[in-house]
Amino acid sequence: MKRRTMAGLLVSVTALAGCATAVPNVGPEPTAGGSWESITAYVLGPSPDGTHEVVLCEDGAAESLPPNCVGTPISNWDWETVPHETIGENPPVRFGYYDLEFRRSLDGSVHVDMDSVQESRD
């Protein structure tokens, strides 16, 4: 009787182990989550402290040329698709004031809907 119980237990454990390896790999967590938000704000790059390529100035910007802010990094900005100004050298700073939609990413950056970006007239 003991032999059948041990054999049954071994088959059950093996079957469960097989199920665990059969779970499909769904990949990493999505990089962007949450709902889309709308904002009118400056976008500039590189960031004043040089740590990010492009930032969204969600909390306003200093009225200087170029504008200055402690912004949120943008993960997908494309300067080639939007009008902007450029000031300085080494590195030059690009900036613009835009109406746009974005959503927050799990890594703390924002993902912008580039189709929504419009130069702001405000």
Account of the 3D structure:
Keywords: Signal. This is Lipoprotein. Residues 1-22 form the signal peptide. It comes from Microbacterium gilvum. The chain has a domain at 37-119. The protein is built from one helix and seven strands. Strands 1, 2, 3, 4, 5, 6 and 7 form a seven-stranded antiparallel beta sheet that branches. The protein is globular. It has one helix at 2-21, and strands spanning 37-45, 55-57, 72-73, 85-87, 93-104, 110-112, 118-119. It is α+β, with helices and mostly antiparallel strands.
Mean pLDDT across residues: 79
Structural shape: globular
- How much β-strand is present in the residues? 25-35%
Rg, Cα atoms, Å? 25 Å
Number of strands: 7
Question: Structural class, from helix and strand content?
Answer: alpha+beta
| DSSP helical segment count | 1
Helix content: 10-25%
- Spans of at least 5 consecutive residues whose pLDDT stays below 50 are 1-30
Order of helices and strands: HEEEEEEE
Largest sheet: 7 strands, antiparallel
Distance between the termini: 85 Å
